[in-house]
Target: SAC3/GANP/THP3 conserved domain-containing protein
Amino acid sequence: MERRHQDRGRLRRNTSSYSSNHYSNSKYKHTSGTHVSSWSNRRRPTTYDSVEEKLTTDDAEREEGTSNSLQGLIGTCPFMCPGDLFLKIPRSEYMVCCYCPCVDFHRKVKGICSCVKIDVVLIVIESERAQRESLRDLAVFERLEGNPGKTSPSLAVKKFCRTISTKDVRASDVRPLPVLEETLTYLLNLLDSTDHGFELVHAFIFDRTRSIRQDLVMQNIVDDRAIDMYEKMVKFHVLSQLKLRRCGCGPDMVSLLHLNMEQLTKSLTSLYDLYDASRDCNSLYRNEAEFRSLYVLLHLNPTSHPVRESLSLWLQHVPLSVIQSKEMHFARTILRFLRLGNFKRFFDTIVGEASYMQYCVIEPYISEVRALFLSCINNAGYKLHPYPLTHVSKLLRMKESEVERLCNVCGLLITDEMGTKLLPTKQTTFCYPKDGFQNYNFLGLEQFET
Model:
């Protein structure tokens, strides 16, 4: 009996030692993989010498479990969510007691009595997928035939883990680039799902795309394919910002919008670093100008969503070819018109030049700009000459009935003289609505409203 406990203790210590050193002795360890381009010696317009250094020292990515000690890691997991890992260990290293053929202490160890002459012992390391099945921690999209305790390799997707201990990271738990691409495609296809509300779909994709970014950073993948994936994830957060606003309002929705905007800014920061690290001479990526312009558009209301760096300093590091692009010209023009108070040119420029993704970033601020316009009219107008509501609707590119509703929400009264609705000025009841603004149509951009 005493020998049995000694063997079991030796087994625990040895299996723990093996799991922690498995990666360091693995054949997958290398220093110059095919996924890591030779950009480490390039100088960039920041204080960092590499994307990995920037990402791993950044608070946002540190939260996602990155570490310099993972340099050279290449994932080997063939599934969207890691499956059980089967390891064949020499019997000379791991003895299994004949009285205990199956010992379960987070790792399932199966073998035969040590007196039997065998060469290997099979160790099964339980996967995330199996653990989540036992805990019934499966999202609606991961359940096999609706069973909350059963999933499959084609349904389960690796969850985001906030803290990762580098000693426990195995190559078999990290998905390589091709698997990450397939996983992202699978997730984005769920956006077309009509069986569940968008809030539920967004919550699932929101978490799983964070896990994808985590795997990309841990493997230090810097190439065109990684850039393409980041662009798709940024676009997801941009579109989600618009769709979530249309799902309703309330404390829960405000929290979702805040978290989505937080991940949008983090993803944009990582994408910009990838652009800089992968750039050759004065080359420009096909979508870079549009994605760079989003950072400028986020400054339309800097108090709502804080950005990481002042716009003037950020523009100093942007390539000249991007500054001269039509997308960046549009973003800077919109910001200038707003700060100058030229509301007519502001709305007209949006109708004439905005792309759908740019409009999704601008849309949350449009109602605030309209309310600001009403405030200016109310304060600067001549009291004896009310402002025609039809003129207001043309300037704000709204239906006249919606302009009237907006005025009422802001505490302004509308008068009717001989069938003509007027907006009296110098009203002291103007205020911004505490519960936020409703969604109003934007005349001229009906194709974006659907």
The chain has 17 helices and seven strands. The first strand starts at residue 85 and ends at 90. Strands lie at 85-90, 102-104, 107-110, 120-125, 387-388, 415-417, 420-423.
